[in-house]
């Protein structure tokens, strides 16, 4: 019998992988996995720590004695605003692997738009030998919105690839060698941006933030001809109907989307068929279970030693 209460786990992704890793994770505590039918009816009042991703609506009523909530991903909008959310720390998942995966995706999408990959794919399907002359990365300004851990890593890796990179955040961040902008300078930032990368958290202020009005403010006469929108932050931060119309009307030259207003993306959604639009199924930076559980164990150890938790959400701003 463990001397510690079990960790409560309610994660709505990859249930097989979670169950497999839980067999050896939290060895000194054990776990209650609500994806396991044999655990669903268990008394949750003993749980002091919960690891959650889109948890059951009644979870906090069933688990009234929690001390810390851990998000199963970098975002916390799936927890903030839930009924009965207790006034306890909420900790985001921050991990080298998750950060690296996100930057890989962002760099890949920027390069595919730079080098005309959609056109190459179309030529290949038609068996056409059609060379393209692409601009250099140095001719393109990538504007990254959201300069937290994920955004700053993406900025660094885009610079390695040769892009001119600028950054925007609600309050100005100082990044060596990078021009940065704050909320009051949004239009100036957009006017310099050829490829817009969205890595913003979802808050009331960022809901529906990327819309037709914003797209029209992007740099329209750069080396790509028309600007490109890339979003791997949160789907509800963009307006999908405006993306569709902006691509069709030539305001945007293309897009890359990993997040959507409703997931999974419906089969009749017009985004699937748009020219020069790349769709991925919210897997740009999937939380790897071993790394996630190690993160939770490390934070619990800090908490129980009386040390401050890391990556705690500021509820006033929503991330």
From TrEMBL:
Limits of the D-isomer specific 2-hydroxyacid dehydrogenase NAD-binding domain: 108-282
InterPro entries: D-isomer_DH_NAD-bd (IPR006140), NAD(P)-bd_dom_sf (IPR036291)
Lineage per the UniProt record: Bacteria, Pseudomonadati, Pseudomonadota, Alphaproteobacteria, Hyphomicrobiales
Pfam families from the UniProt entry: 2-Hacid_dh_C
CDD domains to which the protein is assigned, alphabetical: GDH_like_2
One MF term in the entry's GO annotations: oxidoreductase activity
Keyword field: NAD, Oxidoreductase, Pyruvate
Highest taxon of source: Bacteria
Protein's name in the database: Glyoxylate/hydroxypyruvate reductase A
């Amino acid at each position: 019998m463990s001397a510690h209460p079990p960790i409560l786990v309610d994660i709505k992704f990859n249930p097989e992988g979670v169950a497999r890793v839980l067999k050896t994770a939290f060895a000194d505590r054990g776990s209650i996995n609500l994806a396991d039918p044999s655990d669903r009816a268990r008394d949750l009042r003993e749980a002091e720590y919960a690891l959650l991703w889109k948890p059951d609506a009644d979870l906090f009523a069933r688990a009234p004695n929690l001390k810390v909530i851990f998000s199963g991903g970098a975002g916390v909008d799936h927890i903030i605003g839930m009924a009965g959310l207790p006034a306890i720390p909420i900790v985001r998942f921050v991990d080298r692997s998750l950060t690296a995966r996100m930057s890989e995706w962002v760099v890949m999408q920027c390069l595919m738009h730079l080098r005309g990959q959609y056109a190459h794919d179309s030529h290949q399907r038609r068996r056409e030998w059609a060379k393209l002359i692409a601009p250099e990365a140095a001719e393109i300004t990538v504007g990254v919105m959201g300069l937290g851990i994920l955004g700053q890593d993406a900025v660094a890796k885009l610079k390695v690839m040769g892009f001119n990179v600028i950054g925007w955040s609600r309050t100005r961040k100082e990044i060596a060698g990078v021009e940065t902008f704050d909320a009051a300078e949004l239009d100036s930032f957009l006017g310099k941006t050829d490829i817009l990368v969205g890595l913003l958290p979802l808050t009331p202020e960022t809901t529906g933030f990327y819309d037709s009005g914003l797209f029209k403010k992007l740099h329209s006469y750069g080396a790509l001809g028309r600007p490109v929108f890339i979003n791997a932050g949160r789907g509800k931060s963009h307006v999908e109907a405006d993306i569709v119309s902006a691509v069709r009307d030539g305001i945007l030259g293309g897009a890359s989307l990993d997040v959507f207003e409703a997931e999974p993306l419906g089969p009749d959604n017009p985004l699937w068929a748009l020219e020069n639009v790349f769709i991925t199924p919210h897997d740009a930076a999937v939380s790897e279970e071993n790394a996630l559980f190690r993160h939770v164990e490390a934070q619990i150890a800090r908490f129980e030693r009386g040390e401050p938790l890391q990556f705690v959400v500021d509820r006033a701003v929503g991330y």
